[in-house]
Amino acid sequence: MIDDEVAEILADRTDDGERLNQLADEFRCGREVSQLAVLLDSKNPEFVSVGAWILGELSFELYRSDDLISRLRSLTGHVDPAVRFHALVALFPALDSMDASARELLRRLLCDPNDGVRRAAQAAASRLSLK
Hints:
This protein has 131 residues and is mostly helical. It is built from 9 helices and no strands.
């Protein structure tokens, strides 16, 4: 299962990220993206962060589903700032500047306690002309 694969990759301290990139490549090349829901729903913040990161590395067309978008929106409120950051990056292509919920989400993240999350929100707001 995907969570076992990620656990093995994260436990390998000799890996410099190559195996995570290879895993992302598998999804780029046709592996079923819905498998990432297991990571997004995990209680382990590292797994959740990896799942959101992989989605952010993919073409939006590969994960454009209400189910995954809903999970990503929820994760922008996660306790772990890395999860919030990667969720926002993956969610960005789904944000519409005309959607009140997207504007509210970005307003909330512009006040995030984490500088990286705030900067990502600032970049997203700017690209959507919401500043």
